[in-house]
Design a protein that fits this description.
This protein is α/β, with parallel strands linked by helices and about 300 residues long. The protein is built from eleven helices and 13 strands. Helix content is about 40%, strand content about 25%. The structure holds zinc ion (ZN).
Length: about 300
């Protein structure tokens, strides 16, 4: 779910958010029952994109943590600008969600990863392979912290035969490698004819490095905190941006979740788990302060 910015949100932003609405049910029957809502959501998002002028951001997934079967997918976003698509993070469900936006895979130009927690990267490889079969350009570029290069090579090696089978089935040029650029420090990341991308290093132990990104398109700029504790570097990254997408943790809900896990007999220690969450993530009220400091127009929070 999203926490509305104190500055409010426009109908445009509301429409853009719809792509991230509930998709998957926990069992076959509820999933079927949800199908019409899912279709309506996808249609609404497609209509919003069809009539769109300028750069658009679609939140494909906003859920954090290793929990499948929820009403939201794991973290992923796509930005569409001047006919080119840029994906940021590849949590579970990102390929289906991308498809539901109606953005052709032919438009997918670059993929960015903030950090190597599975809820941000686990569908990176599948997105590449399914995207390739659906027309993703072979010169797609990917960016993220080390060891992204090794991870990509290992994945492509593991799936070489699978890719070759589809290449033969569909008479396609196989996807054999991907242009990977590793990012481990703050500063410029890449620039093309649509966008200038920069990164900052955020605080998300034990993951090092974990990154936040800023995308400066010709008509607007969008900053992403990635997963982090409240951080001055994120305030600086987002300074003057049109939009900041920030992670957020609603502490009472997390505490409630952990208590339920303990009650179920899971081997979880309440105090150490909450200490870990506080050392890793941003409580809602602190993100509000980040938003008020950064001097730009809108913020959305991932929970
Ligand atoms: Zn994380």
């Amino acid at each position: 779910m999203f926490v509305k910015s104190r500055l409010g949100f426009s109908r445009r932003n509301l429409l853009i958010q719809m792509a991230a609405a509930p998709v998957i049910g926990a069992a076959a029957l509820p999933a079927l029952a949800q199908a019409p809502a899912c279709t309506a959501t996808a249609q609404a998002a497609q209509a919003a994109l069809k009539d769109a002028n300028g750069t658009k951001l679609i939140l494909l997934g906003t859920a954090g943590g290793p929990v499948p079967g929820r009403t939201r997918e794991m973290t992923s976003h796509v930005m569409l600008s001047n006919g080119a698509a840029y994906v940021l993070d590849c949590g579970l469900g990102c390929t289906d969600q991308y498809a539901r936006t109606g953005i052709p895979f032919q438009k997918l130009r670059s993929i960015f990863i903030t950090h190597h927690h599975p809820d941000h990267n686990i569908e990176y490889g599948p997105l590449l392979i399914v995207g390739w079969v659906q027309g993703m350009p072979l010169d797609v570029r990917t960016f993220g912290p080390p060891p992204l290069k090794q991870m990509t090579e290992d994945f492509m090696r593991a799936y070489k035969q699978t890719v070759d089978f589809w290449a033969e089935d569909f008479k396609m040029t196989p996807l054999v490698s991907v242009d990977v650029q590793e990012v481990s420090a703050a500063g410029p990341v890449m620039q093309d004819d649509n966008v200038k991308v920069s990164a900052t290093v955020v605080n998300h132990p034990p993951v090092k490095p974990a990154l936040g990104y800023r995308f400066d398109f010709k008509d607007r700029s969008i900053a992403f905190s990635g997963d982090t504790t409240p951080l001055e570097a994120v305030v600086k990254l987002a300074e003057g941006a049109d939009l900041l997408v920030h992670e957020v943790m609603y502490v009472p809900a997390v505490e409630d979740y952990v208590r339920r896990q303990v009650a179920k007999g899971r081997p979880v220690n309440f105090d150490s788990f909450m200490a870990h969450m506080r050392a890793d993530h941003s409580p809602v009220e602190d993100v509000g302060r980040t938003h008020s400091k950064r001097g730009s127009r809108h913020s959305y929070c991932r929970i």
